[in-house]
Specification:
With 317 residues, the chain is α/β, with parallel strands linked by helices. It is 50% helix and 9% strand. Keywords: Transferase.
Length: 317
């Protein structure tokens, strides 16, 4: 980034941080968020937070500072989400593929993750304020013991919150998630309770001794459906994915939430780096989603009305 452009960016940040401007922006945000709550609000939004390192390089600051500014952007976006009524936010924090990077870079990312997970739960009571619980989803055995200890402590601090959820995918890929789900299904299928002996009652044969729902054995392959896999994903108890947003101008999902994406999931690629992603870039996406959702509901209502009218005409004749 040229020095003049970087200077104008610093001037803009300084201007926006002045008390009078902050006061005006705050009340404008509150007004817009309250207006949003009157309409349809997505219940599950996911973010691929891309661009922290590029932001640091272009701004001539340390990489760690770029990650810090990315964390500040995340905290602000989480607040907008939970205020607006979004119940579940899922973020892509670390891909399993990132373990292929140089060891010193991986270790640095692990240290940053430890700090940010602790900050998320300790500073500013953001999670408690909105009743959000922290969940870390992914192949956790790949992580170092010290990182796992921080994760356990952070999730323990917020487990009492029941109103909202923050899913942190770390370390994660969608292919690994799907593979894990298939393994669980196969394990439950092959360990399902054997047919009861004649001396047992029918009621006792309806569930396994472990208390888990019995899944048909592998010979009954047709009984394994898409819903079976969905029920074994990391996000099984979350609402369907409504919006997935990626910053930095890259137009791919990078093995994130591939199973959760459905025909009505809105996929948005933005040409801005994550630390620059703010409420003014996020609100138009929420508004656009609400408009499309109302339009979709109207179309479904019209189709339903046509079907009902046809049924009534058939009954007359």
């Amino acid at each position: 980034m040229p020095a003049t452009l970087y200077g104008s960016s610093r001037t803009r940040r300084w201007l926006l941080s002045s008390p009078p401007v902050e006061w005006v922006i705050y009340y404008m945000q509150e007004l817009l968020i309250n207006a949003l709550r009157q309409g349809d609000i997505p219940q599950h939004v996911a973010f691929i937070m891309d661009g922290n390192r590029r932001f640091a390089r272009s701004s001539h600051i340390e990489t760690v500072e770029g990650h810090n500014m990315g964390f500040e952007a995340l905290a602000k976006i989480l607040e907008v989400c939970y205020k607006s009524g979004v119940r579940v936010v899922t973020i892509y924090a670390f891909s399993i593929e990132n373990f292929k990077r140089p060891l010193h870079e991986v270790n640095a990312l692990m240290e940053i993750a430890k700090i940010k997970l602790s900050q998320l739960c300790q500073h500013g009571d953001l999670m408690d304020r909105y009743g959000a619980s922290l969940r870390v989803l992914g192949n956790l055995p790949l992580l170092r013991r010290d990182v796992l200890e921080v994760i356990e402590k952070a999730t323990e601090m917020t487990k009492h919150n029941k109103k909202a959820i923050l899913n942190v995918c770390f370390p994660y890929t969608s292919r690994d998630e799907i593979t894990t789900a298939i393994r669980e299904i196969v394990t439950l299928s092959t360990t399902a309770q054997a047919p009861p002996s004649p001396s047992l009652s029918d009621s006792s044969a309806s569930s396994s001794s472990s208390g888990k729902t019995v899944i048909p054995g592998l010979m009954d392959i047709e009984s394994i459906t898409e819903q079976t896999l969905t029920d074994h994903m990391f996000t099984a108890d979350c609402p369907p994915l409504d919006i997935i947003i990626r910053t930095s101008g890259v137009g791919r999902l990078s093995d994130f939430m591939l199973w959760q994406c459905h025909p009505n999931t809105e996929v948005v690629f933005l040409d801005c780096l994550w630390p620059d992603f703010d409420i003014w870039k996020f609100l138009p996406i929420l508004i656009d989603w609400g408009v499309k959702e109302r339009r979709r509901a109207l179309e479904m209502g019209k189709k339903s009305g046509v079907r009902e009218g046809g049924a009534q005409r058939e009954s007359v004749f």
